[in-house]
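Fold description:
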Amino acid sequence: MREKYEKSLYVAPCIVYLLALVIFPLLFSLYLVFHSWIPARGPEIIFVGLGNFYKAFDDPRFINAIQVTVSFVVIAVTIEFFLGLGLALFLTGELKGQRFMRICITLPMLLTPVAISYNWRTIFDRLHGPLNYVLGLFGIQPMSWLSEPSTALWTIVIADVWQWTPFMFLTLIAAIEALPVEVIEAGSIDGVSGWQSLRYLKLPLMMPMILTVLLLRSIEAFKIFDLAYVLTGGGPGTSTEVASLYTYVVTFTSFNLGYASTLAYILLIIVTALMLAFIRVYSRLMFRM
């Protein structure tokens, strides 16, 4: 009996942590989804049913935030995948210095997003940024990278690609090096070219890993906040206001915690639907293999 209580005592801090910082906020935010609560107006919590959902789907700013988020995810993840795949294919051969190059490529992934954001904000600065300085050497006029709607989103994409392409690179190079050597050698004996080997042998065998890394990176990209907050603050206007940033604005500007919880859960539903779709495709692929 004493041993049983001792075990429970050791586990107790972890249970308290989960209850206080994970389970309670999750359940309370789910409760607020169906209520309207603005603490600045008083402690009263008003039941509104599905009113917050109707308000969200009728909110043009939230719809715009979802569109911006989807655009960012599609563009950034696509670029990261192809860059990561290209680097992985390039560094799998007997290339001199490839170990050093692999280390250098993975360094951006180790840095914090806020630090990266401020670095890229300095690079894109219109007056003192090194990017405009280099362009000026070729006679190109300085550009307002962070304050033009046509370029602001691309600045966030570039910063994200710089940081997270190493993640794609590491997982894809591991998948390439784990390919069965017998299959690749049999293809080369049969006269298969490098492109044919990639298209008909390597990529099909790597598809489970490709789907997995695309799923993980897409989920993480949907939650982007740091880069958008530091680089552009959602501007100019709302051209770079992603869903998580708009949720933050609703929470700490209007303090409508019920509506903010609803926005967060809608984003959770979208990410969950994306995950289930990927799992379904993955299951079909594994069944065929």
